[in-house]
Amino acid sequence: MRDFYIVDTTLRDGEQTPGVVFLKKEKIKIARMLDELGVDYIEAGIPIMGEEEKDVIREIIAMNGKAKILTWNRMKKMDVDASLACGAKYIHIAVPASDIHIFQKLRKDRKWVIQQVQEVVSYGAEKGCIVSVGAEDASRAEEKFLIEIYQAAIKEGAVRLRYADTLGILTPITTYQAIKRICDYIDADLEFHGHNDFGMATANSLSAFQAGAKYIDCSVNGLGERAGNTALEEIVMTLKYLLKSNHPFEIKRILELSNIVQEASRKIVGESKPIVGKSVFSHESGIHVDGLLKNPTVYESFSPGEIGRKRKIVLGKHSGRTTVIYRLQEMGIKVTPKEANEIIEMIHKKYTYDKNPNIDHMLQQWVELKRDTYDAFSS
């Protein structure tokens, strides 16, 4: 029995990012790569949106991969019927849990919510679906009422419960406390759905896992509403390297998957984005490069090769002699420590008036100048 499961929501919550649209072929490709990576569930979309959405979900289900294909539904029978029309076996039903959602958004009351949970969850279960129920805005809900929702869902046949920090307002500590209390009350698997509004989605998700939540919702590159969701690549690598999980992820697929989602979503991640940013394995500081070249683990928590990346040594304003010698060796040129110091001084002077000098060109000019001097002297 595994200790945790990954539910990827790139194709549902990820596509709800303003301006993001995945074409049918892109959705299928992303779903296939998620399956190859080793996620446990793929939340493939919202069938009630229309026939086009249904068609894509049908094709993803027909892939018959290892991942279970999940559909997202409102608390309505017509949504469950739309999922059934896709051939979906695993369905998720979202339930408004906070008073602001119940009273202000839906203009309903708590009694109505419980009645709908009973009616729609039992309907899905009777139709043969494996039902999970999610409490939307759970982090702002009254805990007593939240537990009432969960207990009603379990009674009607739900097998898993989702706790959604819809606005990303929890901290790692409050996440742990909330999830631990829920786990103590509820006899069902709990799933955590985090948002990144305050930059804590990944940390909160890990706290939820440590408090007892067995399921973690993620999206590739953290794609999602507003500031996004818990980033799949961050969770996967943290579980592997920091929590020493033995989940059989195909780690080398992470970078390719990230790049495909960036291209399909037209949302390019920042250069310093953890795990997949193009600069996260670049090193410039002289002290860092010196240590790194002696032993990479001095300044790298895992090898870039693990995810198909390469280490990059950058020559710049903060570089030291070791970096200069290393870069010139890459060019097939040997220099003395004295010559390396001359080059460092030249580079430092250049950066006083130019933010982006062509360092490689400077090195080449220096080499040619030295050659010309040597040739003139020897003749």
Automatic annotation (TrEMBL):
<dbReference type="InterPro" id="IPR000891">
    <property type="entry name" value="PYR_CT"/>
</dbReference>
<dbReference type="InterPro" id="IPR002034">
    <property type="entry name" value="AIPM/Hcit_synth_CS"/>
</dbReference>
<protein>
    <submittedName>
        <fullName>Pyruvate carboxyltransferase</fullName>
    </submittedName>
</protein>
<keyword id="KW-0808">Transferase</keyword>
<dbReference type="GO" id="GO:0019752">
    <property type="term" value="P:carboxylic acid metabolic process"/>
</dbReference>
<dbReference type="Pfam" id="PF00682">
    <property type="entry name" value="HMGL-like"/>
</dbReference>
<dbReference type="GO" id="GO:0046912">
    <property type="term" value="F:acyltransferase activity, acyl groups converted into alkyl on transfer"/>
</dbReference>
<keyword id="KW-0670">Pyruvate</keyword>
<dbReference type="InterPro" id="IPR013785">
    <property type="entry name" value="Aldolase_TIM"/>
</dbReference>
<feature type="domain" description="Pyruvate carboxyltransferase">
    <location>
        <begin position="4"/>
        <end position="255"/>
    </location>
</feature>
<dbReference type="InterPro" id="IPR013477">
    <property type="entry name" value="NifV/FrbC"/>
</dbReference>
<dbReference type="InterPro" id="IPR054691">
    <property type="entry name" value="LeuA/HCS_post-cat"/>
</dbReference>
<comment type="similarity">
    <text>Belongs to the alpha-IPM synthase/homocitrate synthase family.</text>
</comment>
<dbReference type="Pfam" id="PF22617">
    <property type="entry name" value="HCS_D2"/>
</dbReference>
